[in-house]
Each structure stands twice: as structure tokens, then as C-alpha cells.
Amino acid sequence: MPQIEIVSTSLPGSVRLAMLAPDLQPDQRPALWDRHVESYEAVFEPLTNALAREAIAALGLRSGMRCLDVAAGAGGAALMAARLGAAVVAIDGSAAMVRRIRERASAEGLPVEALAADAAGLDFADASFDTALSVLGIVLFPDPLGALREMARVVAPGGRIALVTWTEPERYELVGRLMGAIATVGRPLAPMSAPPAQLRFREEAEFRALFQDAGLPVERIFRLEAPLRAPSARWLADRLTFAPGLAGLVSSQSDRASAVLDRFVQDLERDRGPGEVSLHAVASLGVARKQE
Predict the structure, then answer these.
(1) CA pair distance 275, 235, nearest whole angstrom
(2) Contact (CB, 8 A) for 133 and 103
(3) Mean pLDDT rounded to a whole number for the chain
(4) Do the bridges between strand 87-92 and strand 112-116 make them parallel or antiparallel, or are there none, so unpaired?
(5) Could you tell me the sign of the dihedral formed by the alpha carbons of 106, 238, 33, 91, in that order?
(6) Surface-to-core class of residue 181, CB atoms within 10 Å of its CB (0-12 exposed, 13-18 middle, 19+ buried)
(7) Are 266 and 232 in contact (CB under 8 A)?
């Protein structure tokens, strides 16, 4: 792959985030994702891949381009970009996620370099990449604006940057059904001290302002719909803790957790039957181009 110049050395993202913000929400703690690699890849990555396909298409990614994937998870988007012939660097704060990206890229012989890194202080020279993306990743950061400015710094003038974030949370069916099961048979939930971090940019005006504050003119914001599919309701319930926040939500039910998951299955099978299930989700894709 083309040489990417690394200009400094920093602490791993999980260590730096822990130092900067001890009160982060579970999904904002990279080290916690180490426990969820397998279930995340099995359950959630097919959904993120559907969103990533749209982001990659909007970037105009072509063979030979240098692409940076920020908060890459288990590598779904990075691998997709590499299959198109791009030279990809994928960064994530979770060491286990990074190892999984390396395993998958090696198995396919794809040009993906995976690094444990902090997006708020990227160790790459200016204009190292032709394009960059982050699918449901950068929006979780304590300082998403700082991370986006870093992405803009390392992308060459004229290059595109694409971000995917959640929107219309009331239509994220997975969480809605889980919350319904908790309301029916579970323990009452304590009031949240702050809204979930991943919903900070659910409104288009807020999402657009994130790009503008980073000095990136927005080309377009797309509304995306995609399903989260599972072989059965029970299969999904057995793997529902595929993210730290969901794991914490289920564990908060203590001795009622099994009853909550059983109710989740019963309600889903009642509405969708005993076979494959498909749960709706809505996201926003924002694309900006760095000024020449």
C-alpha cells in the first residue's frame, strides 16, 4: 500500500480517553469494546456495512486511493474499501477490534493497516489520505469536532469526508423493543444524566453544524434506512449485548434480565414469527469536501 507518514507517537486511544474523561458513557469507552468483538461483528456489522456501502459510494472511492477509516470497529467498512482497490488505514481505540481487523485483512490478503489510535490526535502527516470516513464512530467521541478537524487535516485538499450518525431514534426498532420489554417485566431504569452520545447529531442542523465548525463545506446529507437482520428472535436475544451500552442496560435488570430477554423474544416472535427477523433503523450520511 502507499506509504503513510506517521509524524508522532501517542498513547493508545483507550488510555488517552480514560485520562481525559472518566465519566464517559459505556459506548464511549474503547476498552469496553474489547469484550464485544465477536457479537458486534455477528449482529451489528451487517447493519453498519449497509450504511458503509452508501458512504463509500458517496466518497467516490476508486482503486489506488488512500482511505482512512476512523473508529473502524471490526473492520467492515475498511475491508469493503480495500476490496475496491483502496489502500486503507483503519484506526480504533479498542485493541481487540484492531486485532480482528488485522486477522480479517490478512485472511483476504487485503491492503488494510489497522492501528490502535486516538482520532483526536492522529499520527499522520497533513494530506496523507485522499478520503476518510467514519460509520457510527466519530459521533461517539468526547470531542467529535476535534476528531473531525483531525480527519480534515490528514485528507488532501479536494478530498471527501463521510460521516454516518443516528437519526430518528424512535425508529431504531432494536432499542425500542428492548425498552418495551423492560417496561413490561423489568426493573425501572434510573434517569439518564445525559442523552446517549450517539444521538447528539440526530437533527440535520446539528449534524451540518459539526462539518461547518470543522471548516468542511457540506456537499449533501442523506437519510439512510437499513435493517438489522437476525436468524431468529432468540438468536438475537442471546447476542443482544453486542455493545457496552446494551450490555449495561441488560445487566441493570439484575435478576430480571432473563425475563426481559424472554419478553423481547416473545414480542418479536408474536409480531414477526419464529424465523428470520428484520428490525428497522434510520441514519444520516453527511458528505463534505475539503477545500482546495
Answers:
(1) 10
(2) no
(3) 92
(4) parallel
(5) positive
(6) buried
(7) no
Q: How far is it, in rounded angstroms, from Cα 281 to Cα 231? A: 17
Convert the pLDDT of each residue in 90-110 to its tens digit: 999 999 999 999 999 999 999
Domain boundaries, the chain: 13-167+195-225+283-289
List of residues 6+ apart from 52 with CB closer than 8 A: 76, 77, 80, 133, 135, 164
**C-beta of residue 175 within 8 angstroms of C-beta of residue 169:** yes
Band of pLDDT at residue 23, cut at 50, 70 and 90: confident
> Are 226 and 139 contacting, i.e. CB atoms less than 8 angstroms apart?
no
The CATH homologous superfamily for domain 13-167+195-225+283-289 is Vaccinia Virus protein VP39 (3.40.50.150)
Return the DSSP state at 275: S
43, 232 in Cβ contact below 8 A?
no
Distance CA 100, CA 165 (A): 23
Please state, in angstroms and rounded to a whole number, the distance separating the CA atoms of residues 53 and 191. 36
- Residue of higher predicted confidence among 203 and 190: 203
What pLDDT score does 192 carry?
75
